[in-house]
Amino acid sequence: xxxxxxxxxxTETPRRAADxxxxxxxxxxxxxxxxxxxxxxxxxxxxxxxxxxxxxxxxKDELIAAYLRDYDQRFCERFEAPSxxxxxxxxxxxxxxxxxxSRRASRDGYRGCGLTNAVIExxxxxxxxxxxxxxxxxxxxERLREMCRSMGARDxxxxxxxxxxxxxxxxxxGQTFGEGGPARVLGVMARRLIDASM
Amino acid sequence: xxxxxxxxxxTETPRRAADxxxxxxxxxxxxxxxxxxxxxxxxxxxxxxxxxxxxxxxxKDELIAAYLRDYDQRFCERFEAPSxxxxxxxxxxxxxxxxxxSRRASRDGYRGCGLTNAVIExxxxxxxxxxxxxxxxxxxxERLREMCRSMGARDxxxxxxxxxxxxxxxxxxGQTFGEGGPARVLGVMARRLIDASM
DNA sequence: CAGAGTACGTACCGATCGGTAACATTGTCA
DNA sequence: TGACAATGTTACCGATCGGTACGTACTCTG
Lengths: 198, 198
Description:
- Two copies of one chain form a homodimer.
- The first copy, chain A, is an all-alpha fold.
- Chain A contains nine helices and no strands.
- The longest helix of chain A has 23 residues, at 128-150.
- The first copy, chain A, is elongated, with a radius of gyration of 19 Å.
């Protein structure tokens, strides 16, 4: 997977301090919320020290932005993953993602979408966290429109927005209600909406 | 409106410190986020002092819980308001609320639902903010089920959850995308989902 | 008018926040 | 062996965090 020239032998934990910080920050920011986590907690749990953090990142805000860019990348991978099983079938692709999301979001302990959460934690449009997260959401919206176009929807942009509402609703409802929350119906509702929009 | 025995003459701003704190906290918590606002900022903007805050509220967490209870009350009023124009017509009632929400959530500067935001800011299930917000959402879910039952849906609980996803999705999408975001289609999507579920 | 109770402000607390300076230590490769 | 880059160590900074001990002004009642 990795492409580094000659990494090393034992790969128990990420060796470089910057990577350990990045991974630890990812977990803590996602699970506990960004504002709730201080840099001290991050370096402690990562097993490094504060100067190492500030040698790799200009500021906490920059670390937050890096976290959200990482999150966006992992999200894109997860969203596009079903295309392997459903090439040239955007509807099946989308429904496969939606079904997986429905299951994940209906389990206890689900924490929603890190990008959505970031928009809510940082409503200030000038904050880097807000900007990175919003840009990712705009990409998702455009991607949904693209898929709705290829599946021949009557009004693709409209349907895309409808699906967007269902998906975002699943993210937040998933963490409000635990097991058996509204996200359980995401699959059937997406199908119903798509069928009624062709 | 008020029922206090003999308040006074001029009612320019709330006279009691506790009320001014409550009102100011409401605005600040809602607009900027709960964790982002310190007690100092609240008392400054309210024109009172910190001891006044802590005489009226046990802790910041208690003030947060009070804010969320206030929010829940105002939400319920807003949600039930259309019943005046549409008595004994749950579908029209619900659609009236949904249309108003759609407009509000498609405007710039919209900040979503304070209760939803609180769940995201406080993922810890033991935190009072989380508990108050989740309880309010459970009430909403039950209310939606009730309405879907009275409108004769095929599977009322299922439809209620679908509508919940659309509504929650509008809350968060409204603050991610400003003017012209996905929330603009909330009305048509709700209708489409209801019609396809009867 | 005395006195009590209520309502509020001044000034301060220790803890934690994000962030840094100076220096010692380690591992790697030439 | 020696140089360099990366990391750790320690100690610290000013600002802000949530929270409080204590004094003071007002008002209502007798």
